[in-house]
Amino acid sequence: MGDNLDQPLVLRSDLDHVATLTLNRPAARNALSEPMLDALAARLDEVDADPTVHVVVLTGAGPAFCAGHDLREVRSNEEPEFRERLFARCSNVMMQLTRLRRPVIAQVAGVATAAGCQLVASCDLAVAGESSRFATPGVNIGLFCSTPMVALTRTVAPKHALEMLLTGDMIDATEAHRIGLINRVVPDPRLADATAELARTIASKSPMTVALGKAAYWKQRDLPLADAYAHTSRVMVDNLATNDAAEGIGAFLDKRSPTWIGS
Length: 263
Prior knowledge:
Elements: E1 10-15, E2 18-23, H1 34-48, E3 55-60, H2 71-76, H3 80-99, E4 104-108, E5 111-113, H4 115-122, E6 125-129, E7 133-135, H5 146-153, H6 158-167, E8 171-172, H7 173-178, E9 184-186, H8 191-203, H9 207-220, H10 225-240, H11 243-254
Parallel strand pairs: 2-3, 3-4, 4-6, 5-7, 6-9
Antiparallel strand pairs: 1-2, 7-8
Helix pairs in contact: 1-3, 3-4, 4-5, 9-10
């Protein structure tokens, strides 16, 4: 399915220190073609290097959030080298989301399936409209969702992840919330506003502290318990030495609003 060459594959808009990135292949249900992955990676680098951006929102244009990989592209390129490159690109984008200094919130309307579900699971937070749906349906077409499994099993409990992977069944937003794939379910007309409210809340915090905390979260979660405590203890000591920690503690004790310095 062709793309609109007059429009970027990933749009960006900024408001109140929040950068919204919109996957922009609505006719293809925002499928993650190789050009789309490259465009998303470039946009993520762009916002991470922009000091005015404190939070990133990721959403999709049209009726779907993201339907996963572009199967037409995959079928038309049978060379193993292309397919290895494609899945490596996709994996790198998913890891890029976790390594980004800014928190990333998925704003999900419509379906998020296969690598699209992986995209939701790879974001730090997710807000979904009540009509949204989620699935890892690769098993239905003989192509197990092996790479989406990585993000899914690090987000929801093993048995919930395996049920999604083994059945390929679609789940609704209420069930996605129950198993921990998303943070909030809101009425569809409220989706953009609810996501913006969450983004603004986080954007009001010290961006340096949020970046430090996000990095510490992703680092410690895969460490053994003692190593996780050792790492986060070092982070706490380093955090206490920052200007924003001094300002925040002082503001709390003085009963005033903090003025973040950013260092």
